[in-house]
Amino acid sequence: MVRATNSDLERRIAQLEAENEALREHSDEPPPPPLPPPAAKTGRGWGWTLLSTVLIVIGVLLAPVAIVSTWTKAELTDTDRFVATFSPLADERAVQEFVTAQTMAAIDETVDVEQLTSDLVDGITELGTGPRATEALNALKGPAASGILSLIESRVAAFVESEAFADVWATALRVTHRQLVAAMANDPGSAIVLGGDGTIGVQLGPVVDAAKDALVEQGIGFASQIPTIDRTVTVAQSDALPAMQLGYGAAVAAGTWLPWVAFAFLSAGVIVARRRSVALVVAALALALVMAVVLIAFAVGRALFITSVSPGLIPTGVSTELFDQVTGAMRDTSVAVLILGIVVALVAWLSGPFDTPRRLRAVAATVALRARQFGEDHSVTTGRTGEWVYRQRALLRAAVAVIAAVVLVFGRPLTAPLIIWTLIGAVLVLAVLELVQRPPAVVVVEEFVERI
C-alpha cells in the first residue's frame, strides 16, 4: 500500500475542511439540541483522601529512620564496608597528630627517658673520667634526654604518617569489627570500650607495639624496653551515646525491612488516593522535603557534636573528621533520595492530567510526528517493526518505567549519578520508541488534525 506523503495529507485535510464548511452553509436543518450534561460519577469520598494523607505522612517520616537503620546494619554486617568507612581516618593529618601525641604520652608514662639518660651518663663517669669530662657529661644529660625524646617522636610521627600505620589501622579495624558488636552489647572483652558517660575508647597497644618495632629496626636498642601498653584512648565523646546504644538493637533489626515498610506506606498512600497523579507528586515532593530537613539536621548535629567535645579531650580536627566519616554515607543517601523525590515528582507531573504537561506532551508528539513524516518523505521507514512498536506502545512504555523503577529500588548504593543516568536512559528509550513507531496513515491524519 502506498503511504500518504506530507503534501497529500495537507491537501486531504484542506478538502475535508472545505466540505464541512459547505455542508454547514447549505444545511437548512436547525442545529441539534445540546446534549444533557453527563451524570456525575460517584467517586471516593474525603475519607480516602484522609487515609491517603495519613499513609503518605507515615511513609515520609519513616524514610529518615530507614536511612539510619540501613547504614547501621550495613556497618555491622559488612566488614569491608566498615573498614572502608573508618580506614580513611588514618590518612587525615589531624588524626595522625593526635595518635602521635597520645603515643608519646603513653611512652613517656611508661619509660623515664631522662632517668635512663642520667643512669647512662653516671655509668660512663664511674668508669673514670676527669673532672672536666664528668662536668661536661652531666651538663649533657638534659639535652641528651630531650634529643632522644625528639628522635622518638620523629620516628613515631614518621611511622604514623606511613603506609605501614594505615595498614595497621585497617587491620585493627578489621579484627575489631566483631568486637564492635560485642561493645554495643556491653561485652567486657570488647576491644572498643563504650563508657557510661558517652565516651568511645580504642586500645592503643597495637600502635605502641608497631612503633616499638620500628624504633628497634632503626637501631634504637633501648626502645625494646618499652613494655606492651594496655591503655585505652578516648577517641570520641557524646552525651547521646547511651541512648544510641539502647536504640542500636532495634536499628539493626529494622535495617532490613524498614525501607520496604516506608516504601509500602508511600505506595499505599498513592494507590488509595482519589487523584493518584496528584498524590504521587505530593508524596515525592514531601519525601524530598524531609530529606532536605535531614541534611540540615546533619549540619546542625555536626556543629553540636564538635562543640560538645572538649578540645582538651579530643582535638577539634579529630572530632570533625570522625563525624564526617561516620555520617558521610548517610548524607550521600539522603542527597540521593532527595534527588529521587524531585525526579519522581517531575515525571509524575509531566505524565499527569495537568494542562501544562498536556501541552508539552502535544508539542513533543508533534515533533515526533513531523520527524516520522520527514523520514517517510525521504524513504526512511521502520516498516513492520514500527507498526509492531505502535501496537505495543503502551506495553513498551510500561516496561521502560518498570525497568527504571527496579534499577532505582534495587540499586545499591543509591546515588545521585545512578538516579540521573537512569532518568536520562529512560527518556532516551522513550524518545526512540516514539520515533520508531509507525502509526497507520488514518491515525497520522487524525493526530495531525488534532494538533493544527
Detailed description of the structure:
The chain is mainly α and 452 residues long. The protein has a domain at 78-230. It has helices at 6-26, 46-77, 79-86, 93-110, 113-125, 131-139, 141-160, 163-175, 177-184, 205-217, 241-271, 276-308, 316-351, 355-377, 383-391, 393-410, 416-436, 441-451; strands at residues 192-194, 199-203, 232-237. A 3-stranded antiparallel beta sheet has the order 1-2-3. A hairpin with a 4-residue loop joins strand 1 and strand 2. Helix 11 runs antiparallel to helix 12. It is elongated. The mean pLDDT is 76.
Write the layout of secondary structure elements.
Blueprint: H1 6-26, H2 46-77, H3 79-86, H4 93-110, H5 113-125, H6 131-139, H7 141-160, H8 163-175, H9 177-184, E1 192-194, E2 199-203, H10 205-217, E3 232-237, H11 241-271, H12 276-308, H13 316-351, H14 355-377, H15 383-391, H16 393-410, H17 416-436, H18 441-451
Antiparallel strand pairs: 1-2, 2-3
What percentage of the residues does DSSP assign to strands (E)?
under 5%
Query: What would you call the structural class?
Result: mainly alpha
Number of helices: 18
Order of helices and strands: HHHHHHHHHEEHEHHHHHHHH
Radius of gyration: 37 Å
Tell me how many strands there are: 3
Report the helical percentage: over 70%
Weakly predicted, low-confidence segments: none
Strand line-up of the largest beta sheet: 1-2-3
Average pLDDT works out at 76
- General form: elongated
The major beta sheet can be summarized as: 3 strands, antiparallel
Instruction: State the end-to-end CA separation.
Output: 26 Å
